[in-house]
């Protein structure tokens, strides 16, 4: 697909005013003079060696760029999924416990808002309200400017690096910068988790074993938490894991709005610059995240199933 793009990587390398011989030499160096299947095999072989190519927009290797930007996205997505999963599971359980009530209606409204409101619009709205108007939270970026060059990027995670440096003021700055972008992503994940949690538990409450538990005098909360919830734990684990993977991918718009120096912003910049190597590398990294999380989720779900087996 990148080869179908009108952007010519060789022309980007040598410039518009280069001679024909320089242009052809660049095409040969990049392997663009070879048939498309050969180009694909060469790229795949380079990827297996850990070589993702050179970025034309940054001038460095794509692998080094990903190692620099991915921790910021991972930190943002992790904080967002923690809050989204906790709130989504709690809201879904409450909605299933009181179906048809105001809590159920609130869960439906939150799910509808989380699914319907565009991420970039919500991010801009939160910036306007809490940063520009109320001044309660900091604006775009990951740290205040005063701390950007005083904290050594040891792990790439701002919260860990500031704690390791022993700078509590920088830690508070990093934490406050996380609030708005993490809230936007958390709302998006919360919507799906709450809806699917409610549906799965309500379905379990219609099963015969629930009638048996009620006949034996079990309370409703015990039925929900002790009987129904463990039976849907594998499904919920899959939903949370896929939500986590989608946050790693869906952070593109959020990072662009909040100027978050992560993988999403790197991918957006590369797309606008026509940087094919960077786009391929970032897309490949996101795909690997999906595969790894899916595999780990399958193993965890299988382990839970064996643990429940008589």
From TrEMBL:
It is found in: Cell membrane. GO terms for molecular function: dipeptide transmembrane transporter activity. InterPro entries: BPD_transp_1_N, MetI-like, MetI-like_sf. The keyword Electron transport does not apply. Keywords: Cell membrane, Membrane, Transmembrane, Transmembrane helix, Transport. It is a multi-pass membrane protein. CDD domains: TM_PBP2. It comes from the Bacteria. Residues 70-301 form the ABC transmembrane type-1 domain. GO terms for cellular component: plasma membrane. The chain crosses the membrane at residues 76-98, 110-132, 224-246, 266-293. Belongs to the binding-protein-dependent transport system permease family. This is ABC transporter permease. It comes from Plantimonas leprariae.
């Amino acid at each position: 697909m990148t080869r179908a793009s009108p952007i010519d990587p060789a022309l980007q390398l040598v410039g518009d005013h280069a001679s024909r011989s320089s242009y052809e030499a660049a095409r040969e160096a990049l392997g663009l003079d070879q048939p498309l299947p050969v180009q694909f095999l060469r790229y795949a072989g380079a990827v297996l060696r850990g070589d993702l190519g050179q970025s034309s927009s940054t001038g460095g290797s794509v692998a080094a760029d990903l190692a620099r930007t991915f921790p910021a996205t991972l930190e943002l997505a992790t904080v967002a999924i923690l809050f989204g999963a906790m709130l989504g599971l709690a809201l879904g359980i409450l909605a299933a416990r009181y179906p048809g009530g105001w809590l159920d209606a609130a869960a439906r409204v939150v799910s509808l808002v989380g699914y319907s409101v565009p991420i970039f619009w919500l991010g801009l709205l939160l910036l306007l309200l809490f940063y520009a108007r109320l001044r309660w939270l900091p604006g775009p970026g990951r740290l205040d400017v005063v701390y950007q060059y005083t904290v050594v990027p040891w792990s790439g995670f701002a919260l860990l690096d500031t704690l390791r440096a022993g700078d509590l003021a920088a830690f508070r700055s990093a934490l406050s910068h996380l609030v708005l972008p993490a809230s936007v992503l958390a709302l998006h994940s919360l919507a799906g988790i709450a809806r699917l949690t409610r549906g799965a538990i309500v379905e379990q409450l219609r099963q015969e074993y629930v009638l048996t538990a009620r006949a034996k005098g079990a309370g409703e909360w015990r039925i929900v938490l002790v009987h129904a919830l463990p039976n849907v734990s594998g499904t919920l684990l899959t939903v949370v894991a896929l939500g986590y993977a989608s946050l790693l991918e869906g952070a593109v718009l959020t990072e662009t709005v909040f100027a978050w120096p992560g993988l999403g912003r790197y991918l957006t910049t590369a797309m606008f610059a026509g940087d094919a190597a960077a786009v391929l590398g970032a897309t490949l990294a996101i795909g690997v995240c999906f595969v790894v999380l899916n595999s780990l989720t399958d193993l965890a779900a299988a382990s839970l199933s064996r643990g429940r087996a008589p």
